[in-house]
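Posted in: Structural Biology > Protein-Ligand Complexes

Title: Requesting predicted complex, iron/sulfur cluster in pocket

I'd be grateful if someone could produce the 3D structure tokens for the following input. Sequence and ligand are given below.
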Amino acid sequence: MASLTNRSKVLEQTPLNFMERLYLPNIFKGMAITFSHIFKKKATISYPEEKRPFSPVFRGLHVLNRDEEGRENCTACGLCAVACPAEAITMEGAERQKNEEHLYREEKYAAKYEINMLRCIFCGLCEEACPKDAIYMSETFAPSNFTRQGFIYSKDELLIPDPTTNKEGYEAARGLREAQIKK
Ligand code: SF4
Ligand code: SF4
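-- Reply #1 --
Done. Output follows.
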């Protein structure tokens, strides 16, 4: 048969010797290796009951932030969407009305804010681009889903709980990542 290189080798099957034909020594050898691993520390964990600690620089699911008075930080400036290399972020801005000062920190806010997690590469550029500390990446994963639409996160899903009405939820969503990075 023609060969493109001269690196091919013709392998010949050597006949098995008596010990090899018994098979038992090799079976015991394999069992010994298996048993030796029983007493070693396991490399695997029982996820989701058990979870590995995250790296301080782990970038998880996005969270839209509020200030300590519960007002939304996002001013719909669009810098995160411009910075996003995957074009995963879409938004629509709206003007804050007179009686909405307690809802939105700035005069303009995001009436619609969506992130397509199937496009997102979790690079963190949106977080870096934001001048208002309005978006950051938490320590949680985007949960699995059966539909593509389920991976398009709306503003309601991204918005952090209001710290004035749900302090525990707010603290849990903030997580430890920010504190770990500051250390
Ligand atoms: S993490 Fe990166 S890819 Fe994902 S939305 Fe932010 S900028 Fe886009
Ligand atoms: S999240 Fe930040 S960068 Fe993006 S629109 Fe809102 S304020 Fe601007």
